[in-house]
Fold this sequence. Notes:
The complex is a heterodimer.
Chain A: E1 8-10, H1 15-25, E2 29-32, H2 38-43, E3 51-54, E4 64-67, E5 70-74, H3 79-84, H4 86-91, H5 93-100, H6 105-110, H7 113-119, H8 125-131, E6 136-141, E7 144-149, H9 150-153, E8 154-156, E9 159-160, E10 167-174, E11 181-187, E12 195-204, E13 206-218, E14 225-226, H10 228-234, H11 239-256, H12 267-289, E15 301-303
Parallel strand pairs in A: 1-3, 2-3
Antiparallel strand pairs in A: 4-5, 5-10, 6-7, 6-10, 8-9, 11-12, 11-15, 12-13, 13-14
Helix pairs in contact in A: 10-11, 11-12
Chain B: E1 10-16, E2 19-25, H1 31-38, E3 57-60, E4 63-66, E5 79-81, H2 94-101, H3 111-124, H4 130-137, H5 148-158
Parallel strand pairs in B: 1-5
Antiparallel strand pairs in B: 1-2, 3-4, 3-5
Helix pairs in contact in B: 2-5
Amino acid sequence: MSGLRPFALHRPRSVEEASRLLAEHGGDAMVYAGGTELLVLLKAGLARPGCLVDVKAVPSLASIEAGAGALRIGATARHRDVERSPAVRAACPLVADVARHVANVRVRSVGTVGGNLAFADPHSDLATVFLTLDGTVRLEAAGAARDVPLTDFVRGPYETSRRDDELLTEVRLALWPAGTAAAYLKFGVHERPTLGVAVALSPNGAPDRVGAARIAVGCVGPRPTRLPAVEAAARGLDAAELARRAGELGALAAEAVDPVADLHGAADYKRDMTRVFVQRALALAAARLAGRSPIVLHPHTVAV
Amino acid sequence: MSSTHTPSPSRLACTVNGRAVALEVAPHALLLDVLRDRLELKGAKRSCDVQVCGACTVLVDGAPVSACTYLALEADGRDVLTVEGLGAPEALHPLQQAFIAHGALQCGFCTPGMLLTAKALLDEDPAPTPERVAHWLRGSLCRCTGYRKIVDAILAAAS
């Protein structure tokens, strides 16, 4: 059917009011901002809330600020806002460029970062990238706030640790040290990515020697994950060594993921694509660490 | 549904194609349905109904949105542009002229969405690169033309 089932629309003016509404209505209320994922869910009848709590009128939730080594993106900041934010561009250009490629221009005009994270669609770009920035989300309810690492917040497909009365108000990203070379590759032919790999290589000592590696894979499994075994293997390598061993590290990554078969592909296929794209992302990041800016063209791939 | 009250209609006051509009709409009404069924503006199409195809694209305050997945009340206080507001048959918009000149439409079903997305792009970037045009058109699907002529038409209209 087209069209939505009826619901009441509440527009709280503060986090406290929003939280009160959520507590009052319990599971019958859902948080609404851009609605780019929520309204599709409602159309499919997979959720039938009696009311939506529209948080766009809550001031300060749309702010984007950088300072003290961190980037804080408010929950109702839209992908388009992140894409165009001078603060994001200066603090972490990769985040702006990943936001530029989320979904399509219409979704970017309307959809929000907070909604994206709270919805926890496994096929999401932002959650994957934010894992390499040690993202934490702030959850607020009834005057109390808690910060939850993204890796704990996203528990599985469409499942987060947010309580019904809590509002996700912002995500905080720990900026990489100076000299970090990063890359994000996303692959797929569907509307959502089939696979996303984020790599950040931070130098130690020599500018092209990896001191710390942060590597995350998303979309293939129930939730995005960091790859500690691959990160450990990359540590201490210089850019040339890393480029030579990227294939081996890709194979290591393939063993570490937990792919789920779906319309994007069989588990074996996703595992193999993890190998391929971790290799490609490491190669690209290594080249950037060595001061090069290669043009990367792989089929059905966006290279950021 | 455990809601104890019937959601009541709310007032939508906006401009559509430059004209003031005031309607009572239910909170759950979608912009696409209000445009097509209450304002008789049939240019925006319901196609995929999940905002991935672009056939329902309209501009709200200059930004492209999927009207099929956009609450009508979100347009309150805003300016909505549909293809009917882009140009008149006797005074076509340069984009419309370029689409005709370059054969950038066949069945025409995707055309309103393509035109409005292109307008939003050119309003922001009057001289886009082909890469930028293709980037903006990502998510606007065409089954007829193969896209090349659409991109050519937009680049021609820009110059």
